[in-house]
Amino acid sequence: MAALKKGMAPQANVLRDGKYQTIDAAQLVPGDIIKIRLGQIVPADLRLIAGDYASIDQSALTGESIAANKKIGDEAYSGSVVKQGEMEAVVIATGEDTFFGRTAKLVAGAGAKSHAQQAMFQIGDYLIVIAVILAVIMVIFDVYNDIVAHSMNMTAALNILQFVLVLLVASIPVAMPTVFSVTLALGALNLSKEKAIVSKLSSIEEMAGIDILYSDKTGTLTKNQLTLGDTTLYHAKDEQEVVLAGALASKIEDNDAIDTAVINALTDKNVLKNWTIDKFIPFDPVSKRTEAQAHDKQGNQIRVSKGAPQVIVDLAKPSKEESDAIFKLVDQLASHGYRALGVAQSNDDGNTWKILGVFSMFDPPRDDSKETIEAAKAKGVNVKMITGDDTAIAIETCRQLGLGTNILNAADVFPSDMDPDNVPDDIADKIEAADGFARVFPEHKYAIVKAMQKRGHIVAMTGDGVNDAPALKQADCGTAVSGATDAARSAAALILTAPGLSVIKTAIDEARRIFERITSYTIYRVALTMTIMFLVVLSAIFLKFTPLTAIMIVIMSLLDDIPIMTIAYDNTSVSDKTIRWRMKRILTTSSVLGVVAVIQSMIMLVYEFMAVRNGSGSIFGITDKSQLQTLMFLQLVVAGHLLLFVTRQSKWFFQRPFPASALFWAIIATQILAACMCFFGWLVPAISLKTILLIWVYNIIWMFIINIVRLILERMNY
């Protein structure tokens, strides 16, 4: 909002008390008469009422690729910039009622919820519900047993409460937000090396699931540089003769896009030094042409003019056959999205003119745009175009880039009184079927993005202007391209500092790697949490034995979670399909793996518990219940980390991509620490080295069993 306010005119030249005076733009009211001139920011929405003409750059507002030429009766929008001319106007709207104000209002209300945030809440709720149910069951069972045994007292009650609280704390995935944030932050660091700045971490994760990418045309897919295409010759001997005449009728210092394109088309710009401009008549919307009078070093005088082809035809008055041919050419160029520019010359001081030729002009696609679009399509992303330019220009650009050409004019689709937050179903159907839109306003872009989000799509949006800001903020991943306005950059979640969209492919790949890391951690965390909770409760109910002390549960949580943060560096494969949170699949997979892990732990616990109670020989070499607790503590620590190797990919754990060295050695270091704790008796009763080795053998065997279950679940594709 602060960036948008910077774009508003601070002062205005207004007619008050019969004379013009300068006041703050905030004091303007509808009905005021004001003057606008070269270099000023238009202070309000205006209707032009007097003056010759004005050329106004409103590209930041509407997305048009060149400045709009205004005449009496036309409207000028607040926040646009006067490039040429001076006119009087009446104020027709101020504040939030202006085109600019409506855009700011949309930005204030825009914004989509992060899917990752929603997923974390769902996972947390799932685990907490299970934990509460199990805790209630365990409390009821313990209280019942104490009452029956007549041992219920305050100490027993506090012991039950203490253990239940520890169990509940262990059930909450407290490290999950940290793991998510660290993983996303490292992804942001990698993207910054590719000249993409992340201002909203969750947008990286969203990039993994985008299935629609709406891209602005001008300056994003195209170079934002008008370029001369083919030149049709009439009375010129070659193309450069037409270009020279057009260049003489241009002024490079005016920074006009058309003048710059014509002058840049000269193969040798030094040829202009041979000519002296005696008189220059700039373009205005009435005459729709420029004219120059010039002479060369030999004293030859000529007049040259360039402008709209129909105006040049009226000036030169060619034969009907020639004029018909020119009009037919103009229609053909327009149908393909090309602008036409006629050039004429007079050698007799303007008494007679001859048409030298007609230029075709086009904003060409960027060199990397087509390759980027093809790469995005290969990743399952449907790329569509939104532009403020004419429909024909948009269609031709799409054709050259290999995009769909079903481009709709926004005015034909969206009613003027439509609520952009609630797009009717019939219009949403048209939006979903279209390959893009032309002649769009900010509320159109915003409505398009929000309508597709309501249809279940994850939408990315690229843009650079104030008109893009509402849609950029609303999109799941709003991307401001290089050279974007402050408002667009402030609204966007991803800011590109290099021209074009080529970094989008890198961002999608990085996002999908991050998503795989987060998903593997999620499955691991849910499965391990369920294992601990069910093991404790089942043991308490059926064996009347507490397999873990409260301190063991706390230490185990630390040993499990701290090294797992290095999963942010893990090596993962890059999916060729869009990825999104499939909570049913994630929770089902993790729950099934958790149940198998519970079976794994319960078999060891029951067998060793019976061996200790009956005094028979224990395979693992333990002699009492305190050592059994240490056995189960180490078993869960080892099994937990081996489980991560299974969950980190959907194939055999020993296949590529291998774990990152940071993750692998963090787990090894943790396992060494856990083994030392159990061997030397740090905070837990000591067990032998043989017992520790046997625990590892047991868990490695089960690692293969759990991996087989994971492969079966993947093949079921539920």
UniProtKB/TrEMBL annotation:
PROSITE patterns: ATPASE_E1_E2. InterPro entries: ATPase_P-typ_cyto_dom_N, ATPase_P-typ_P_site, ATPase_P-typ_TM_dom_sf, ATPase_P-typ_transduc_dom_A_sf, ATPase_P-type_domA, HAD-like_sf, HAD_sf, P-type_ATPase_IIIA. It is a multi-pass membrane protein. The keyword Cell membrane does not apply. Residues 9-107 form the P-type ATPase A domain. GO terms for molecular function: ATP binding; ATP hydrolysis activity; ligase activity; metal ion binding; P-type proton-exporting transporter activity. GO terms for cellular component: membrane. The chain crosses the membrane at residues 123-144, 164-191, 522-542, 548-569, 590-607, 627-646, 658-683, 695-713. GO terms for biological process: proton export across plasma membrane. The keyword Nucleotidyltransferase does not apply. It is found in: Membrane. Belongs to the cation transport ATPase (P-type) (TC 3.A.3) family. Type IIIA subfamily. This is Glutamate-tRNA ligase. The lineage of its organism: Bacteria, Bacillati, Bacillota, Bacilli, Lactobacillales.
